[in-house]
Each structure stands twice: as structure tokens, then as C-alpha cells.
Amino acid sequence: MEKRTIPVVGMACSACSANVERRLNALEGISMASVSLPGRSALVEYDPQIISLEKMKSEINAIGYDMIIESDRSVVEIERCEYQLLRRKTILSWVFSILVMSVSMGWIAVSNRDIANQAAMLLALANFVYCGRGFFVSAARQMSHGTANMDTLVALSTSIAFLFSTFNTFWGTTVWGARGIEWHTYFDASVMIITFVLTGRLLEEKAKNGTASSIRALMGLAPKTAHVVKGAEIDEVPISTIAVGDVLEVHPGEKVPVDGDVTWANSFMQEDGAYVDESMITGEPIPALKQVGSKVLAGTIVQQGKLRFRARQIGEDTALAHIIRMVQEAQGSKAPVQRVVDRVALVFVPVVAAIALLTFIIWWMVGGNAMLPQAILSAVAVLVIACPCAMGLATPTALMVGIGKAAQENVLIKDASALESMRTVNAVVIDKTGTITIPNRNVDFTKADELPLEERESLKPHAREAMEELQGMGIEVYMMSGDKEDAARYWAEKAGIRHYRSKVLPQDKENLVRRLQAEGKRVAMIGDGINDTQALALADVSVAMGRGTDVAMDVAQVTLMSDDLRRIPEAIRLSKKTVRMIGQNLFWAFVYNIVCIPLAAGVLHIVGINFQITPMWASALMAFSSVSVVLNSLRLKFA
């Protein structure tokens, strides 16, 4: 069996990722598939003797998504092009919406009603063909495979509104007017539905943009070539050709290509040793002395001198490859909290369609052919008013406002998953060097052990205040350091941290996160280096320092752009406010549907109240519900 993380593009909601996951798990030869919407990837365990990657790609393409099995560069290009296309469609859809509203509402003077309706119809059709085409293609594919997502409801409601309006445009006077029935067109509603949903998706894509690039950044750490020693000659060869047992030479400033054992080392500071910067693995800034018998790791950099070593672990067996694999698996696993709106969407679509059909049948059966127009109007009103605009905007608008407010405080939050999880954090694992302390790289690292701890590094301003504030909130803090016991204890005491560990490696940090999670804790990992990426990827919430490595920031869901650690408790408080706002938005969005769908269906006629929401008012209420969600979210700026 093989396990691999494969990029998947085209997913817009949790219903999409659920459909991809179900499809993969149904294929013969796949023992496990877990699809991550934020990570835009599928973690698949499969038997290559039974199923190929090309077969998986074909099956996923059939339901409207794309599995990328080509080069990493193609994934970057596809994601960038998709975002730019979505942005263009959203802007153009707003233009169409304004034009249609202007014509329909009489804001632009038109000679007569027929010409106004025909102009609105052509504008709406253009919006359908270019801006909304993706909804209809996706809905058709979903329906052909017996599934549904939010695209299905968007396509259903807009197409019914458009077709009914088109019918009224040409035959409204003849069919309804002759019977004394007032008739309207609803092109504005069909256009606004598409516009609002596209806007919500654009906001969401902007929030999570770039989260799939961390693996590519990690892979870029390994050098592409290596110097192989063959007798008296040294040949530069591709890293893929290195075999276990080969003797390799690394010069100053170069990266170690694979893991191995030193056979010779020399520098002007040490005749029988060289200094290697292992900060990306250990997190410690002082280069390590490497002599004969010492171990070197792939991705580390020779800083002083040069050395030779015998390759011991290559390819997928290196420490760097292990970190990459752990990050891939953590990002490919299911998010701890799924969005309520996307879970409900799986049931919401068929339920609304059934309600609309039932509404039509009841009106027609009760009133006969004389009530046929009323039956159609009621069914259309149900479909229009049940548009998922408010539900689609509930999360991304609150998220974007929350992200904007956090950015003002120098805290970058990437996705709703982090916000949903951060408010429940009750344990923090934090790296020492570069996170709690600031290292002096101006010291003579050959004599570092002889210097007082205060001369090697210093505590960051407000670090103790931040740690005490976290612990005052009931959050346990655990400091992890690759440094020696005395140094780790000293800095833990200076920062006011009760729990700490010294001489730790990346795996130790990951193990601590796993242990705390097994105890039922919600864990936030805070770090700044490559050595923290395993734990960052595994934690419920991952926080990177802005001055740390690009890899740590890519993996992390939250990045602190300043050294002020007080931003961490502030971010947790903001998380609670933002998630509370998301909950309010979703509550009112669902209440809107629960109240308005029966009113659109005409349920009040049962108790003798002659009131019903018409499609015209349904479209207005639909727009109002979306605007109200946005306005409610904006209150976060002043919270």
C-alpha cells in the first residue's frame, strides 16, 4: 500500500470535499481517503497494483473536480488562474446586476415595459453564460452522479426564476393579463443570486489563498545536486542518483543533500571539525560542531569549513522527507470543525426542491387550473427565497472582517478553521529560541558554551506578561527547547512558564502535541522554524512568528507579524468574538429560511390570512438577508 497527498482543485464548499471523499473511498484499491478543503488536497492510501493515479483523476474529473498528478508548478498556475477567473466573474456579475436592477426598477428610462423586460432578459442571459456557467455545469455533474451541493440550489433557483421571467416577458400579457392577473419578471433576482454567491466564494478564496503552498516550500529545502567523492575525483550528480554508502562532500554555504555520518571535516577554526547550521531542524541558532562520526541531516547548511560524510538515509527516509510527509498527512486529514452551512447544504437542496414541488402540487390540486399561475408563482417564490446567499456569506464575511481586525493588531489569520478552533484552546506548546527568546548571532559560536545565558540570547519584550495572561485564561503553557537543561529551565523561569522540556527534536514536539490531544486538550502550537513544522501541522491551531521561516508561516494557520507575544491571547479573544458572529449570521440565515419559505409557499392562507411573499418580494428579501449578514459582520470592527 502507498500513501500520498494529491492536490485537488475546484472544491468550493464542504459538500464538495465530501463528494470527492465519498467518490475516492468507493473506488476499488483505495483503503482510505481523507479530503481537506482548506488544504485543497486528498490524502489517499491505495494499492498501485489495483488502481492508478490516472484512474483516480478520471473519476474525480467526472464529478466536476480536478486531481492534479502533474508537476507542482501546474498546481500553482491552476490555483492562480482559477482565482483570477473568479475575480473577473464576480466583478462582471456585479456590473450585470446593477444594469439589470437599473432596467427592472426603472432607474434607466426605457420606452416601454416589453423592451425593458427583453433588455433585462438579455443581460441576465449574458450573466448566466459567462459568470454563472460554472454553477450549472457543476449542478448537472452532481445530479448525474446522484449528489448535490450549493451549486445545485443556485442553478435550480436561478434557472426557474429566469425561465418563468422569460415566459412572462413574451406571454405574460396574453396568459396572465387576459385573466386579470398581475404578472412580473424576476431577472434581477436570478442575477443577484449568482452575484452574491460569487462574492462569497471570492472572499473565502482570498482568506484561504496560499494554504496549499507549504509542502512545495518544504520540498524546496533539499538541494537538487550533490558532490559525490569517487577516488581522487569529485562529481556533481543529481540528488536522485545518490545511493546508501556513497561518500559526499559539502562545501561552505551548501546544503547537506541527505542524512549521513561524517567521515572527515575541517575548518580554519577546527582542524578536525566543521560547523553546520542545524537551526531548521533543532531550532537552535548556534551552529553545531561536526567531527568524524557525527550525524548530519538533509537540508542543514555547512557554515564554516567543509566535510565529507557517508550517505545513511536517502530519498523518503531522510529527516527532512519525514517532516514533509508528516505535514502532508496532517494537512490532508479532516479539519476538526466542519462548517455547519456546508453540512446542511447536502440536505438543504433536496428539501427545498421538494418543498417547492409540494407547494406547486398543493396549490394546483386545491384550486385547479384557475390556480395554476398561483401555483407556479408560489413554487418560484420558494426557490428564489431559499437561495443560499445568506448562508454562503455568513462565514466568509465574518471571517474577512475578523481577519482585517486581527491584521490591524499584526496577527494574520488564514482560515475559518483556525478561528473555530482557537476559541477552544486550553493548552499551548511554544518553542523557545526565536519565539520566546531572541538569539544573539553576533556571539563567537565556538565559545558559546562559555558565555552567560544572557549574552547568548534575551527574553522578548512582554513575553512573561503574555505567558501569564494565557495561564490566567486557564490555558496550560509548555515550553519546548533543543537547548540544554540549565538553559531551558532558566528561560522558562524568566518567562513564568511552569512546564518545559529541554534537548527536544521535532519528533518530541509532535509527540507532546499528540499526547495533549489524547488527553482531550485543544492544542495550539507556536513556533518559528522548520523544526516546528511537524507539530504546527498536527496542532488544532498553529501559530508562526513572522520573522521565522517561510515554511513555518506557510504551514501555520496564524502568523504573528510582530515579536509581541501578547497578540496571542488577543487573537484568542478575537477568535471567540468572530466565531460568535459567524454563529449569529448562520442563526439568522437559517431563521430567515425557516420563516420565509413557509410564507413564500402561502401557508398563511390555511388560517385565513391573505398574505404571501411573491417572487418579487422574495428576491428583495433574499438580497436583504445577504446585506444584513454583511452589516452584522461589520460590527466586529467595533467589538
TrEMBL record:
Bilayer disposition of the protein: Multi-pass membrane protein
InterPro entries: ATPase_P-typ_P_site (IPR018303), ATPase_P-typ_TM_dom_sf (IPR023298), ATPase_P-typ_transduc_dom_A_sf (IPR008250), ATPase_P-type_domA (IPR059000), HAD-like_sf (IPR036412), HAD_sf (IPR023214), Heavy-metal-associated_CS (IPR017969), HMA_dom (IPR006121)
Residue ranges occupied by any HMA domain in the UniProt entry: 2-68
A GO MF label: ATP hydrolysis activity
Domain of life of the native organism: Bacteria
Keywords: ATP-binding, Cell membrane, Membrane, Metal-binding, Nucleotide-binding, Translocase, Transmembrane, Transmembrane helix
One cellular component term from this protein's GO annotations in UniProt: plasma membrane
SUPFAM superfamilies: Calcium ATPase, transduction domain A (SSF81653), Calcium ATPase, transmembrane domain M (SSF81665), HAD-like (SSF56784), HMA, heavy metal-associated domain (SSF55008)
Keyword Metal-binding: yes
Main location: membrane
GO biological process entries: copper ion export; copper ion homeostasis
Subcellular location: Cell membrane
Protein family membership: Belongs to the cation transport ATPase (P-type) (TC 3.A.3) family. Type IB subfamily.
Protein name per the record: Heavy metal translocating P-type ATPase
Organism annotation: Prevotella sp. GTC17260
High-level lineage: Bacteria, Pseudomonadati, Bacteroidota, Bacteroidia, Bacteroidales
